[in-house]
Design brief:
- The chain contains seven helices and five strands, in the order H-H-E-E-H-H-H-H-E-E-E-H.
- It is mostly helical.
- Helix 1 packs across helix 3 and helix 3 packs across helix 5.
Length: 220
Amino acid sequence: MWTLDELVDRVEDALSAEYSGAPNGRVRGIPDRRAVRWYSTIGLVDRPSGTRGRTALYGPRHLMQLVAIKRRQAEGHLLADIQVELSGADDETLAAVARVPPALLEIDGPYQDEPAAPRPRFWADKPAPPTTGAPPATAAASTAAPSTAASSTAAPAAPSGRVATRAGAVRLGGGAMLVLPGTPTDDDLAAIAAAAAPLLRTLAGRGLLTEENTEIGSPS
């Protein structure tokens, strides 16, 4: 695939052999970058085939479209008439009008979009095993005062999921807290409570929560 500058260079090479230029002095003989974008806007040239980063990439069909436009203009056709003839034309029609040398239609290799960087799936990763001999991690303490939960052989029950907030900090229950950049409304709190319920059950089952039950309106 080619960049826009490379495409324009190939158009010039294709026209250099048998192109006398457009008879209308107001029509540019060789299309520049601005003209290519304009032709794309009015449907005479396809949109770029892809991108490499932020750089648009073009292929052989774009080259045939641009050369065909210029050949028709050299014959004295108006742009409106060229639109009727060439907009959406198939490759066979474009090749017959453009007469681009085959060597100019060759590309270096098949184009492939740059693969996007994989997003980390942190929610699917297993927690790291505890260090041998180290005491088990305790649940996060309340911001008001440190508190500890007595160890139990049974998993603690999931908190009720009630939510309280102040200055953007939302207490989910069981010592868990959600920090937000803005202050949520009452409707936001209700939505957060519903969405947090399955997460709280999972955390409780893993013994990651205290057994405290936070009520609405408690300080956070």
